[in-house]
């Protein structure tokens, strides 16, 4: 049988109201008392009555998380970071998937809001260009945080990787290995992520005196028929005889490597390859895949911390965009 607030109160010789405030991180309670209460509650496996508390204070201590798809290693790593921060702060998370559909994203947001979550963090779908459904919630004072996929069309706290810098580093690495005919394969989604990685690629070429060639760039539909889209794009790019390819998403990186091997190309002898990927398989592929690794877990942690601060009414300043550094991981696929 789990202990109650009254049990903790008697054991520590403090009032029930003090125990309650300490467990909810109230600023009215001193740090020493908070730590004493939290330690006792943890030791004796105290479980809060969420339903009773939500009825009393109008809070459910639950957070809605909307992502594109859960079957993605990068997304899973972000969710792990979100879950840890929420658990540490006494919040539960409700995860919903948009499946890259704007209509489904709207349905997810409506359902989460109707269920009484205290705030929502969202990585928008590829199809999302209209953010009115989120702006409407904000106008009601409802906390919303964007993470990973962000947009200039909405004013909010946003946390993402520095995609432009990561793409610049990847392209510069290929250039430093002697490649000048560098192809770029990207998603056709209207996201800042897509645009920033494309801009990073072009800027690296420009800064190193290499002319940008439109015929060395292709965009794939990564929401539907990905295999056929990649095959069509690769057929187009290979006609231009590129020396190397920079792919801009986790999915494209592995799909292109598989395509090249299937068509008897030796990587990196015939063509070098580098991509954006957080897959643990990158290091064990043959050849091992050079990648730009994103700070996925840190993105999730910071997004969760930001949303919880907003829910608690803390003054964290005006809405801002925080871009976290990527890491270039050099392996065999990008050449010597």
The chain-level mean pLDDT equals: 90
Main sheet characteristics: 6 strands, parallel
CATH topology of the largest domain, by name, is Rossmann fold
Tell me, what is the CATH class of the largest domain? Answer: Alpha Beta
**Helix content estimate:** 40-55%
Order of helices and strands: HHHHEHEHEHEEHEHEHEHEEHEE
Helix and strand content put the structural class at: alpha/beta
Q: What oligomeric arrangement do these chains adopt?
A: single chain
Our measurement of the CA-to-CA distance between the termini, rounded to an integer number of angstroms, reads 63 Å
Reported CATH architecture of the largest domain: 3-Layer(aba) Sandwich
Describe the secondary structure blueprint for this structure.
Layout: H1 5-12, H2 16-23, H3 31-43, H4 50-57, E1 62-67, H5 73-88, E2 92-97, H6 102-114, E3 119-122, H7 132-139, E4 144-147, E5 157-161, H8 163-176, E6 182-187, H9 192-207, E7 217-220, H10 226-238, E8 244-247, H11 250-262, E9 272-276, E10 290-293, H12 296-311, E11 321-324, E12 327-329
Parallel strand pairs: 1-2, 1-3, 3-4, 4-5, 5-11, 6-7, 6-8, 8-9, 9-10
Antiparallel strand pairs: 10-12
Helix pairs in contact: 1-2, 2-3, 5-12, 8-9, 10-11
Domain HTH lacI-type: 3-57
Keywords: DNA-binding, Transcription, Transcription regulation
InterPro entries: HTH_LacI, LacI/GalR-like_sensor, Lambda_DNA-bd_dom_sf, Peripla_BP_I
Question: Can I get a quick summary?
Answer:
Residues 3-57 form the HTH lacI-type domain. With 336 residues, the protein is of the alpha/beta class. It has helices spanning 5-12, 16-23, 31-43, 50-57, 73-88, 102-114, 132-139, 163-176, 192-207, 226-238, 250-262, 296-311; strands spanning 62-67, 92-97, 119-122, 144-147, 157-161, 182-187, 217-220, 244-247, 272-276, 290-293, 321-324, 327-329.
């Amino acid at each position: 049988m789990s202990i109650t607030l009254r049990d903790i109160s008697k054991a520590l010789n403090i009032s029930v109201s003090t125990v309650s405030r300490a467990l909810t991180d109230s600023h009215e309670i001193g740090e020493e008392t908070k730590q004493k209460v939290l330690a006792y509650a943890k030791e004796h496996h105290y479980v809060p009555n969420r339903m009773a508390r939500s009825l009393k204070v109008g809070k459910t201590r639950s957070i809605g998380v909307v992502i594109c798809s859960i079957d993605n290693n990068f997304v899973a790593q972000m969710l792990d970071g979100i879950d840890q921060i929420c658990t540490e702060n006494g919040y539960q998370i409700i995860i919903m998937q948009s499946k890259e559909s704007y209509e489904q994203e709207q349905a997810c947001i409506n359902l989460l809001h109707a269920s009484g979550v205290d705030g929502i963090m969202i990585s928008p779908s590829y199809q999302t260009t209209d953010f009115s459904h989120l702006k409407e919630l904000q106008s009601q004072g409802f906390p919303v945080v964007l993470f990973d996929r962000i947009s200039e069309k909405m004013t909010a706290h946003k946390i993402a990787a520095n995609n432009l810098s990561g793409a610049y580093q990847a392209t510069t690495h290929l250039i430093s290995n002697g490649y000048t005919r560098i192809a770029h394969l990207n998603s056709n989604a209207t996201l800042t992520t897509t645009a920033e990685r494309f801009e990073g690629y072009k800027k690296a070429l420009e800064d190193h005196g290499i002319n940008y060639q439109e015929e060395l760039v292709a965009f794939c539909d990564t929401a539907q028929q990905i295999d056929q889209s990649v095959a069509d794009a690769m057929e187009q790019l290979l006609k231009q005889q590129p020396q190397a390819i920079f792919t801009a998403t986790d999915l494209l990186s592995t799909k292109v490597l598989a395509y090249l091997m299937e068509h008897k190309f030796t990587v990196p002898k015939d063509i070098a390859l580098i991509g954006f990927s957080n897959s643990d398989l990158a290091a064990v592929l043959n050849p091992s895949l050079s990648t730009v690794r994103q700070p996925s877990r840190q993105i999730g942690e910071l997004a969760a911390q930001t949303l919880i601060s907003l829910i608690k009414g803390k003054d964290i300043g005006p809405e801002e965009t925080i871009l976290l550094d990527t890491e270039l991981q050099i392996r065999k696929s990008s050449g010597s």
